[in-house]
Amino acid sequence: MRLAAFGLLGLLLCGAATAKQSDRSPPVNVDARSADASAQPNGISHIKGNVVITQGTLKATSDLATIYFDAQSQVKRVVLTGHAHIQQLDDNGNLMTGNADSIDYDVPEGVAILTGNAHVKQVNRGSASGDRLVYDTKSSTMTAQSTSDEGRVHLVFKAKQQPAKSAPASNASAPAATTTAPSPAASTPAPAPAASAATGN
């Protein structure tokens, strides 16, 4: 696999956040339409049709899946192909989602390799797209790679939100206008002068 000069980038999507500790010990559950499942030591099982694989908050779905077992008949590797999708919560409750043409998940190591039209998004952190993304579910770190000289990786980081500025204090209200009532003398018309009596001759 040839990497472009810029092709290998270490991307820390979630800072100090890590995948849920409780996701490391539960059994791997598989649900599908059909399977030739036989958990023999060092065996291989082929799962088909609306495959759903879960382990704690980790969930993976695809059209097809191949499951590899170790010498103790424990699941050691899961390869998802066709509309492959993976998602998981970290200890802070942030959701990580990933989509690719195929996903190769190393169960003991907790590492998922997304290949072909790969895209990973971490809520409140950022996202990445590329030919090949390697996501560590234990540390929630990811490496983005380009598999050709012309290939590129695309990264989006969420900027730190600036605190909202407080609104400027409004001007003090103008004092209410006072109206001076006119004095009674000014408002009461003066009495008319008395009419003079006519004096007869």
UniProtKB/TrEMBL annotation:
<dbReference type="Pfam" id="PF03968">
    <property type="entry name" value="LptD_N"/>
</dbReference>
<keyword id="KW-0732">Signal</keyword>
<feature type="signal peptide">
    <location>
        <begin position="1"/>
        <end position="19"/>
    </location>
</feature>
<dbReference type="InterPro" id="IPR052037">
    <property type="entry name" value="LPS_export_LptA"/>
</dbReference>
<dbReference type="GO" id="GO:0009279">
    <property type="term" value="C:cell outer membrane"/>
</dbReference>
<dbReference type="InterPro" id="IPR005653">
    <property type="entry name" value="OstA-like_N"/>
</dbReference>
<feature type="region of interest" description="Disordered">
    <location>
        <begin position="158"/>
        <end position="201"/>
    </location>
</feature>
<dbReference type="GO" id="GO:0030288">
    <property type="term" value="C:outer membrane-bounded periplasmic space"/>
</dbReference>
<feature type="region of interest" description="Disordered">
    <location>
        <begin position="21"/>
        <end position="41"/>
    </location>
</feature>
<protein>
    <recommendedName>
        <fullName>Organic solvent tolerance-like N-terminal domain-containing protein</fullName>
    </recommendedName>
</protein>
<keyword id="KW-0574">Periplasm</keyword>
<dbReference type="GO" id="GO:0017089">
    <property type="term" value="F:glycolipid transfer activity"/>
</dbReference>
<feature type="domain" description="Organic solvent tolerance-like N-terminal">
    <location>
        <begin position="30"/>
        <end position="139"/>
    </location>
</feature>
<dbReference type="GO" id="GO:0015920">
    <property type="term" value="P:lipopolysaccharide transport"/>
</dbReference>
<dbReference type="GO" id="GO:0001530">
    <property type="term" value="F:lipopolysaccharide binding"/>
</dbReference>
<dbReference type="InterPro" id="IPR014340">
    <property type="entry name" value="LptA"/>
</dbReference>
<keyword id="KW-0813">Transport</keyword>
